[in-house]
Amino acid sequence: MAAVLTSPFMASPARPSGLGDVLRHPGVWRAGSASRADLRTQPTGNIALDARLPGGGLPLGALTEILVDHDGIGELELVMPALAAMTRARRRVAMIAPPYIPYAPALAAAGVDLDHVVRIDAGTADSHWSAEQCLRAGCCAAVLHWLPQVDYRQLRRLQLAAESSDALAILFRPLHAQEQSSPAALRLRVSSSSSGTCVDILKCRGDFGTTRREPIALRA
After folding, report:
1. Under CATH, to which class is 41-219 assigned?
2. By CB distance 3.0 to 4.6 Å, which of 40, 134, 143, 179 could disulfide with 60?
3. String of b and e for 5-16 (b: at least 16 CB within 10 Å)?
4. What is the pLDDT of residues 110-141, one digit of tens each?
């Protein structure tokens, strides 16, 4: 039987020799490093917002957070055109742990095909698991998840699950969560004032310098 000999002088696999080598590694993401052609997006239908988002819409295969100061101020308007397009294409949309029962007539009026909408009621822990499984299974074109409390580890798991899919992954969180770190590719803040409802882009992966600080009008 032949013996396999090893030597301490045999060459070892090359390792990054400096910061430049590390940054060139394909597994390392840098702001602005992606090209527009690499981005997979779903338009929101809001022309002003889409114009500021890389690729012209919400990212697919990545986590998007929508932060709101209270429910029902128009946050669903950001995703309703996308849900309508997906369900009309006979693709499934999952709504996980919404704070209120979705109003079917309003969804239908927005063009959403209710036959392809699934609502999952669950507690915080179970809803997190459900969202992760829906994303990893690849059975949904969009997963909308309302999650008042979550830690960074759970957010990271959701982000990784989103990356394993081609789905629109939306996480609704309270406004105070903007002070917390998040691995989400996109973070939007929806707020209301006497002049109406507006959207601010808090974080945007690969923004190419297109985002600005001014809020975007959502509802007058």
Report:
1. alpha beta
2. 40
3. eeeeeeeeeeee
4. 999 999 999 999 877 788 899 999 999 999 99
